[in-house]
Amino acid sequence: MRKSLITVAIGAMALAATEASAPAAEKLKIGLIYVGPVGDFGWSYQHDVGRKGLEAALGDKIETTYLENVNEGPDAERSVEQLARAGNKLIFATSFGFMDSTVKVAKKYPNVMFEHATGFKRAANLSTYSGRFYEGRYIQGVIAAKMSKKGVLGYIGSFPIPEVISGINATMLGAQSVNPNIKVKIIWVNTWFDPGKEADAAKALADQGADVLMQHTDSAAAMQIAAQRGILAFGQDSDMIKFGPNSQLTSIVDNWAPYYVQRAKDMLDGTWKSADVWGGLKSRLVTMAPYTNMPADVKALAERTEAAIIDGLLHPFKCPVVDQDGKTVECKGGTYLDDGQILSMNFYVKGVDDKVPGK
Amino acid sequence: MGMLEAITLSVIAASTPLLLAAAGELVVERSGVLNLGVEGMMIMGAACGFAAAFFTGSTLIGALAGTCAGAALALVFALLTLGLAVNQVATGLALTILGVGLSGLIGAGFVGQRIAPAPHLFLPVLIDLPGVGRILFGQDAFVYGSVLLVAGIRRFLFRTRAGLALRAIGDNPASAHALGYPVLRVRLLAVLFGGACAGLGGAYLSLAYTPFFVPGMTAGRGWIALALVVFASWRPLRLVGGAYLFGAVSILQLHAQGLGLGIPSQLMSSLPYLATVLVLVLISRTRGTAGSAAPASLGTAFVPDR
């Protein structure tokens, strides 16, 4: 009796499951993987804002899942595969360190389409996408050089990968356009997300005389230290003005939703193709938070710089680019460095008085 | 403010959460219980402490809430490992996972919010003493609390009868039980105390160190606290040394980078851990009273025979 009851129960459950999943199967399942917590208020947070935008735009046609706090490295492969197995047909892997894992899983699941943020390895079912954050960094460099009284900028780096190094270089080129003698102090924290360590690095930079802080890590800790010390800083990934109302000059704000919506639409229409999309200020994938805590002339200069980049009149890596050893870098893009050179950048430009770690 | 003073201030800030959490765990382990859930209890303290401070505007209430949250999670651990004699290692690991998940849930509504940082002591005249003024007379209550805590623990463990009983229970619970000591009750109190300290250490992170809450903000500090207890060979004074050494190395490597000394940052980041390994090797080679004071029955469950 008991056994048959269980059988009936299992049967009913199975029935319920098929009934529930039948209409759901028509929905496009989309999975995202974040390197940090969705609540980091930085990089992963902005990707989740993009995911929410996706749900808002396509509503009942799609279903999204995300995995947060996924470690870069071997752990990532398991997570990407988990999403593929769960029936997701479009998977966004949103950190550079997920690259090789995503490439591997993409080979195993040819019918699932993958999108890897900030990477450079592609396949028939693996696209790459990223933002031209260096455009925003160039503007920040211009502002920083105008606003720094001591002429010393403090830069908190995560890992010495091309994305971060090109950011440092763009900042310096922007700053040098205002003050050729500008100095930068760089501290690598070797993590994307550790608020305590980011705060420690910010304190160290402030103690060593930097009066404008910028970061390529994911939390608002550095902004808070700048506010405590009464110095200036740039937010990162999201608008962090709340954490430094009198300190934030502007912030690069990542705006992923339009791209995610476009790619999901392509999937629904069956027109998805492997591509390499690199959107900048012009396509509004990269946007700038309001210019605050600066005099009107600096604000005007920042706005002019932004407009010039959008109109294509100004390229942050305009040739000639000279590296820190004084060597002119080969100019593969005609009048500026081409995308490949920016995506694989592993040298500092002239004026950076430091060495690329591990080089 | 001189550079040395500035660096010292940063070192103290970086060391305090480690010291708070590790001091509690030291007492737990001295009673013979190994609670690997420090990271989970810390992050719960950070989440609940921030939530309470956000609603009340009071750092004190935030710190109390963090302490209670850590103790509450420790109670779960105690019920399982002391009440049901479940494996301590597995339960501790599960406790970390539970704490990290639960704190994310509790803290989800507080992401992107900010509170005023914990107030610092301000003694006019004294705070202006060159070199040491800010270090001795300008800290927040957590810093002074952590020093008092360790002093209190040291006194308790080595100068009181109850402390002697606790150490005896950690070394040989069966004998202590035969002598009439309430082994499980003492261990329960020790575990709760450890949880409270871890919660306080977590609350320090979200109330004073970086006054906001984000999930995962402890970033492994609970594990470092655990390592520090071993590093200190279960002695309170060495724990202070260890926590400050760890803090000092991690801050100095940042300064060395800022000065552009040209040492690879990856190597610098690993220095605190290398220093830990080195000291562990030295301690394990030392015999006698200076060597390790590991509780003899650390991590083994005790079930009273009646």
Explain what you see:
The complex is a heterodimer of chains A (359) and B (306). Chain A has 359 residues and is α/β, with parallel strands linked by helices. Chain A has two domains: 25-132 and 256-279, Response regulator (Rossmann fold); 133-254 and 287-311, Response regulator (Rossmann fold, 3-Layer(aba) Sandwich), CATH 3.40.50.2300. In chain A, 41% of the residues lie in helices and 18% in strands. Chain A is built from eleven helices and twelve strands. Chain A has a six-stranded parallel beta sheet with strand order 2-1-3-4-5-11, sandwiched between helices. A six-stranded mixed beta sheet of chain A has the order 7-6-8-9-10-12, sandwiched between helices. In chain A, helix 2 (43-58) packs across helix 9, helix 3 (74-85) packs parallel to helix 4 and helix 5 packs across helix 6 (162-176). The longest helix of chain A has 23 residues, at 2-24. Chain A is globular. Chain A starts with a helix and ends in a 16-residue tail after the last helix. By secondary structure, chain B is mostly helical. Chain B has one domain (3-290): ABC transporter involved in vitamin B12 uptake, BtuC (Orthogonal Bundle). Chain B has twelve helices and no strands. Chain B has helices at residues 3-30, 38-56, 59-83, 88-107, 133-137, 141-159, 161-171, 173-178, 183-209, 221-231, 236-258, 265-285. In chain B, helix 2 (38-56) runs antiparallel to helix 3 (59-83), helix 6 packs antiparallel against helix 11 (236-258) and helix 10 runs parallel beside helix 12. The longest helix of chain B has 28 residues, at 3-30. Chain B is globular. The chains are: A alpha/beta (359), B mainly alpha (306).
